[in-house]
Design brief:
The chain is 33% helix and 24% strand. The chain has one domain: 4-Layer Sandwich (Glutamine Phosphoribosylpyrophosphate, subunit 1, domain 1). The chain has helices at 16-34, 39-53, 96-104, 113-122, 133-145, 213-219, 221-228, 234-247; strands at residues 2-6, 72-78, 84-90, 110-112, 160-165, 171-177, 198-201, 205-211, 252-258, 263-267, 274-278, 281-284. The relative contact order is 0.19. The strands form two sheets. The chain has an eight-stranded mixed sheet with strand order 4-3-2-6-5-1-11-12. It has a four-stranded antiparallel sheet with strand order 7-8-9-10. The longest helix is centred in the N-terminal third of the chain and has 19 residues, at 16-34. The protein starts with a strand and ends with a strand. The mean pLDDT is 94. It is an alpha+beta fold. The protein is globular, with a radius of gyration of 17 Å. The structure holds aspartic acid. Aspartic acid binds at residues 8, 57, 157-159, 177, 179-180, 189-191, 210-211, 213.
Length: 285
């Protein structure tokens, strides 16, 4: 049993609150695993806690797009039957990862706001709270400077993601995000794209990415790393692909786990608040 989570790759050192929240999310997810629950449920639970915290760029803490609207993305994949669920640009819903989980069981597994919202409402998912003052001030600042001068990534990402291995030997991966620092209305990054932001297949491994979505998409980074796991360790698999990403101008952090429960947390940025939990306990850094 193993669960790994991240709170986004970037150049800013994580605060104590961020590390505490990651630790709580690991503990809650592991409780599910230790009761023989599924890797999928553990991933959903861990990400839900991070979405609810408002400390990350996901759920309650999601970034605003340039028109002042939060359009959130999330995705899930399980490695046994390769089932996926993903939601793109959802407005007004607090837990996109919960919605991705519901969508996973439908015949159509990737939905944008129009259909996804109806499903969220039919399932009584909680509404997204109003954005806090800091988010509004950040957006006002970006608009004042003019978007062409703003670094759209600002070298700070706080998307959240998780990968897990359960007692049944099944893997799962998930991700939830509010996008990047400055983005055109309707912009979609890697996080809800299966194969780019996440991937899980029992015979290979499970991966969740964070970073410059536009570049991660070009390499289908999560799937590429999973393919590398056929011939090497998680560290090897992540290293090979992150080198390729750097070459095209990308930056990212990844959590990678193989079917044997070996894992790595690797990033091209200075920091990446993250952690893992196994039978020896929780570690966050
Ligand atoms: N990858 C995310 C995106 O491009 C951003 C992040 O990782 O924080 O939407």
């Amino acid at each position: 049993m193993l669960l790994v989570v991240h709170g986004g790759a970037g150049n800013r050192r994580p605060t104590k609150n961020v590390l505490k929240k990651l630790s709580e999310s690991l503990q809650e997810g592991y409780t599910i695993l230790s009761k023989n629950g599924t890797a999928l449920d553990a991933v959903v639970r861990s990400i839900t806690i991070l979405e609810d915290s408002g400390l990350f760029n996901a759920g309650s803490g999601g970034n605003l797009q340039l028109d002042g609207v939060r359009r959130l993305d999330a995705s899930l994949m399980e490695g046994k039957d390769l089932k996926t669920g993903s939601v793109i640009g959802i407005e007004g819903i607090k837990n996109p990862i919960g919605l991705a989980r519901i969508i996973m069981d439908l015949p159509n597994t990737m939905l944008t706001n129009t259909g996804a919202r109806k499903i969220a409402e039919a399932n009584n998912l909680e509404p997204l709270p109003e954005p806090d003052k800091e988010s509004l001030a950040r957006l006002a600042e970006i608009k004042k400077k003019g978007t062409e001068t703003v670094d759209i990534y600002k070298e700070c990402f706080s998307t959240v993601g998780a990968v897990a291995l359960d007692t049944h030997g099944n893997l799962a991966a998930g991700s939830s995000t509010g996008g990047i620092q400055a983005m055109l209305p309707g912009r979609v990054g890697d996080s809800p794209i299966i194969g780019a932001g996440i991937y899980a297949e029992n015979s290979m491994g499970a991966v969740a990415c964070t970073g410059k979505g536009e570049y991660i998409i070009r390499l289908s980074l999560a799937k590429e790393i999973c393919m590398n796991l056929r011939t090497g360790s998680p560290l090897f698999a992540a290293r090979v692909s992150l080198r390729r990403l750097l070459k095209i101008g990308g930056n990212a952090g990844v959590i990678v786990m193989n079917k044997k429960g070996q894992f790595t947390i690797l990033h091209t940025t200075r920091c990446m608040p993250s952690g893992y939990v196994n039978e020896r306990g929780v570690v966050v850094k």
